[in-house]
Design goal:
Elements: E1 15-19, E2 27-33, E3 36-46, E4 59-66, H1 86-100, E5 112-122, H2 127-148, E6 161-169, E7 172-175, H3 179-184, E8 187-194, E9 199-205, H4 213-239, E10 244-246
Parallel strand pairs: 4-5
Antiparallel strand pairs: 1-2, 1-10, 2-3, 3-5, 6-7, 6-8, 8-9
């Protein structure tokens, strides 16, 4: 089955990562996934929450937002409408958990907080997976800058982390759903993995139909293949110190 944008069922949308996108952030990138655009920034600040003080460990936290003009109809800023909603809280926690899975808190140089900001400036499906994948690049660069400043000796990351979506649309499993496909999906799933091919988080729902173990395995295999390509892109942009990379 060929999709409306011409992709095969097992094909990712075009990806473009523009590194060091913001002048003042310790680490940043613009992550483009098809028509989805997410601006990711990472900054290290002094201090941790009161519940963590005195342990000599750092912490990682994330914030996520959809800018008002990022969707088909303008959405109000959550800061002016009672604060973050349930979906926003869920995605923020997902980003935070994903990053904490590969950050060595004892290697952050003391009680410092790594703040990750993911702002969606244009949404066409996959915003949370784009945020996680882009956030990794921003986080790496923030820690690299921390090293350059003499705060730590090594980048305290145990590996890579990336994410993608998979689902079943019209009876066929597909990789990296755009908004139209996601809206029509019978099964919808977000998968986060590390650079060793291990699962960090799997969020799957039978939106319109239950699914058996064989279908689940097929979806996870498809996600794993897609993430393998994304991680290779992350490896290259860091190892070759590129400002821009496309997949």
């Amino acid at each position: 089955m060929q999709r409306r944008d011409g992709r095969a069922a097992d094909e990712l949308r075009p990806i473009k990562v523009t590194r060091r996108y913001l002048k003042h952030a310790h680490g940043s990138c613009m992550f483009e996934l098809g028509d989805t655009r997410v601006l990711c920034a990472a900054n290290i600040t002094d201090g941790v929450g009161s519940w963590r003080r005195g342990k000599g460990l750092g912490w990682v936290t994330a914030e996520y937002s959809l800018l008002p003009a990022s969707t088909h109809t303008r959405s109000r800023r959550e800061s002016t409408s009672g604060g973050p909603k349930g979906r926003t809280h869920e995605i923020q926690r997902l980003i935070g958990r994903s990053m904490r899975s590969i950050v060595d808190m004892s290697g952050m140089g003391g009680e410092f907080t790594l703040n990750i900001d993911c702002d969606v400036i244009q949404a066409d499906g996959g915003t949370r997976t784009a945020a996680i994948t882009g956030a990794y690049v921003a986080v790496h660069d923030a820690f690299a800058r921390w090293c350059e400043a003499g705060k730590i000796k090594d980048v305290p990351l145990s590996g890579f982390v990336a994410a993608t979506s998979v689902g079943m649309v019209d009876g066929e499993i597909m990789l990296d759903l755009d908004y139209r496909e996601d809206s029509a999906a019978e099964i919808d799933m977000n998968v986060v993995m590390d650079g060793e091919g291990r699962f960090i988080e799997v969020q799957g729902t039978g939106e319109r139909t239950p699914f058996d173990r064989a279908r689940l395995d097929g979806l996870l295999d498809l996600a794993s293949n897609g993430i393998e390509g994304i991680v290779e892109m992350q490896r290259r942009i860091i190892a070759e110190d590129l400002d821009v990379i496309e997949l």
